[in-house]
Write a structure and sequence with these properties.
413 residues; alpha+beta; 6-stranded mixed beta sheet; 5-stranded mixed beta sheet; 17 strands; 41% helix; disordered N terminus
């Protein structure tokens, strides 16, 4: 494989030489030209795949920021926001909640991401899945399938029907869906070198959670824990999650978490600025944009509904400072940023769309996300996998550490 690496390092020069040599050989010895043309094709394929990881990351980052723009636009317009909330049907809802809601923002963001990524990478299109059912029912009782297509006029028509003919609101949303997003790639610390993918596009899958923490998105109340950088509830807990995994092995390799409401804009209480976090773990190559952080204390971050036996064990036996917060994506993000050390969820109330993106980021930091019950029973780490397309729920609960050695210490107790 040394020759392949050499070719990759000098790919531009090699491709140019192959083209020139290929043309010369065709004129003199056509039969040899066939072999050289095959080599030309192989090198072009290597070149395309070598660049693809960064290309995919850039598109995911753009899609996440468009999603954040839509989430902010909907939330900041109270008249519009009141039209957008709908209770989920029974087969869609999470058993943890008495009432589970989705918003038009959820549906629109999900379909926008599918459209944008599918347009750039057609082979991926059928492997992009998300949390939400695209069907939305307006106040008149009409059911409409939310779609995003090449023609903005079609999307406007769909949204007008959902919004009971409100052309202004529909147009405002569609502007965000088709708006070009410019990101500061240097500030996001995107690698400048090409990074190869070990898989073809058709061997990858994507899980989307368009707005993780929809309940917090709807309520909008903001509550902080005793640690100022960690919220217990509210818009700060809302995240856009986009995770890429290898379908064959079921391993998350690339994750983007966009926090649309990370910080209030100074002197504009109803305006927010977002933050974007990403991580990539492909073979031995690991990259992310998260700076090392020393936690203020030994913090375990849990769900408010966590079982008391686990809370008592973590607090009394493991000697953690226990805090409660909303949003699975947000809680795992706090493990990745180092602001908390342990995340544990004993119930099977999360889904693959909740965990794929944050798990990929954890893996880029040598951490991971594990099946809690399987890990406790076997006394060995059992990672969350995405291999079985039919399994969408993390039935055995979750445990996350940024440092796997700390998990091993946990298992010794």
């Amino acid at each position: 494989m040394i020759w392949v690496k050499t070719l990759l390092k000098r790919k531009t020069i090699v491709l140019k030489l192959v083209c020139e040599v290929s043309a010369t050989i065709y004129c003199v010895r056509p039969e040899i030209w066939i072999a050289s043309n095959t080599l030309h094709y192989v090198i072009k394929t290597i070149n395309r795949n070598y660049m693809s990881a960064i290309s995919l990351l850039k598109e995911l980052l753009k899609a996440s920021e468009k999603a954040a723009n839509i989430a902010r636009a909907c939330r900041q317009n109270q008249r519009l926001f009141s039209l957008l909330i709908q209770e989920k049907e029974k087969d869609e809802s999470n058993s943890r909640f008495d009432h589970d809601f989705k918003t038009l923002a959820d549906c629109l963001i999900q379909e926008m991401i599918k459209y944008d990524i599918g347009k750039q990478f057609p082979e991926l299109r059928d492997n992009i899945r998300g949390e939400e059912n695209a069907k939305f029912t307006n106040t008149a009782g009409d059911s409409v399938i939310v779609t995003v297509t090449d023609d903005p006029a079609n999307t406007v028509a769909v949204l007008e029907k959902i919004l009971n003919g409100d052309k202004e609101a529909a147009a405002a949303l569609v502007d965000e869906v088709y708006r070009e997003v410019e990101l500061d790639l240097e500030a996001l610390e995107i690698p400048t070198d090409a990074i190869p993918l070990d898989n073809g596009w058709a061997e990858l899958g994507i899980w989307i959670d368009p707005i993780d923490g929809t309940g917090e998105y709807i309520k909008g109340e903001e509550k902080l824990t005793k640690f100022p950088n960690i919220a217990s509830a509210g818009l700060k807990c809302c995240t856009v999650l986009i995770g890429v995994y290898e379908t064959c092995q079921g391993t998350p390799i690339l994750g983007v978490i966009n926090q649309p409401f990370a910080d209030r804009v100074p002197e504009q209480d109803d305006r927010y600025e977002g933050k974007i976090y990403w991580g990539m773990s492909i073979g031995d190559l690991k990259f992310n944009n998260i700076a090392p952080h020393e936690p203020d204390a030994r913090i375990a971050i849990l769900s408010p509904s966590e079982q008391s036996k686990y809370v008592e064990f973590i607090r009394n036996q493991l000697k953690y400072d226990v805090i409660y917060s909303s949003g699975a994506g947000y809680k795992i993000l706090k493990i990745a940023t180092g602001e908390a050390e342990l995340f544990l969820l004993s119930k099977g109330t999360t889904y693959k769309w909740d965990t794929c993106a944050p798990q990929a980021i954890l893996r880029s930091m040598n951490g991971d996300l594990f099946n809690l019950q399987d890990t406790l029973i076997s006394k060995s780490v059992k990672k969350i996998s995405y291999q079985d397309r039919k399994v969408t729920r993390n039935m055995g609960g979750l445990i996350a550490y940024q440092n796997i050695d700390k998990l091993r210490e946990f298992l010794k107790l």
